[in-house]
Amino acid sequence: MLLSSVVMKDYFKNPTYSDKQKLKLLFVIFPGLTIPVKAFLKILAERSVLNLIPEIAEEYGKILLDLKGIQTVKLVVASPLDESYGALLLSTLKKITKSKTILLNVFHNPKILAGFIIEYKSILLDLSILKDFSLLINEV
Is the same domain home to 50 and 76? Predict the structure, then answer.
């Protein structure tokens, strides 16, 4: 997917590639684009704003998830979760977010000794040991 590729994001942000080249690449990568989408991309190219494609795709993805009632939650862990913990965490997140479906984005952070950090919308819940140790060190 265009969003998850750092190389593609960098390509579209790079001003040394013309919008014509970027448009041609999109048509090659996605040969089954509908006529309205092709027209939209051509307009972006004509206005020299194809560099906005990654942001447009990200916002479109958010709108689509919202329309489908899917909540996105970010989870930062020290090590892979045991399957039983993952199921419990997922059911708890469904209750908290009042959603039937959760898209759980899991990230690994080796600086966390234990526990995890949850980010949902603008709320950050830090249940990691790293946080506790850093607070202790600041007090000493």
Answer: no
